[in-house]
């Protein structure tokens, strides 16, 4: 009996390590319970490359600061598909980038939106590699987010596909957005009284 118990404990530990290693390789999208505090361009400009490395996970750093790409149809994308209403923020500087209102299923294996939540928060830059692709960056921290494609024939209001790496987005569910806004309004009312 004791041997069986020990053996099952060993198996459980090994399984735990395997699952942990898997999670490490396949990152998940961070979910916040309240609206994150956005950084200003000035604050962001003071962050050195070494500091970015410390602040971000290796996967987030590789995409946001080194223009990397997450694997398609990964865990982040599977989670993204299941998420309800809410907002998506830059994992580097907490700027609001996209919202579930513009989310659509393009079947490309990466989170897709037909427009940013606020156009001024996202900038498009022509790739210099001659591919003609248009890169999408966070307008505040200049972090790489993905690419935007136009005129592919999707029946969305813009026929644009913002193909975004979910690894560099922070999701805030709609209820949490509402709760934070209410709390902020109550706080402001208290101060004015
Ligand atoms: Zn950013």
Short synopsis of the structure:
This protein has a single domain (28-192), classed as Peptide methionine sulfoxide reductase (Metal Binding Protein, Guanine Nucleotide Exchange Factor, Chain A), CATH 2.170.150.
How are the elements arranged and paired?
Elements: H1 2-25, H2 41-45, H3 49-55, H4 58-64, H5 75-82, E1 86-90, E2 96-99, E3 112-113, E4 122-126, E5 134-138, E6 144-150, E7 160-164, E8 169-173, H6 174-192
Antiparallel strand pairs: 1-2, 1-8, 3-7, 4-5, 5-6, 6-7
Zinc ion binds next to loops.
Characterization of the model:
It is a single chain. The protein is of the alpha+beta class and 193 residues long. It has a single domain (28-192), classed as Metal Binding Protein, Guanine Nucleotide Exchange Factor, Chain A. It contains 6 helices and 8 strands, in the order αααααββββββββα. The strands form 2 sheets. A 5-stranded antiparallel sheet has the order 3-7-6-5-4, with no helix packed on it. The longest helix has 24 residues, at 2-25. The radius of gyration is 20 Å and the shape is globular. It starts with a helix and ends with a helix. The mean pLDDT is 90. Zinc ion binds at residues 90, 92-93, 95, 138, 140-141, 143. Residues 90, 92-93, 95, 138, 140-141, 143 line the site of zinc ion.
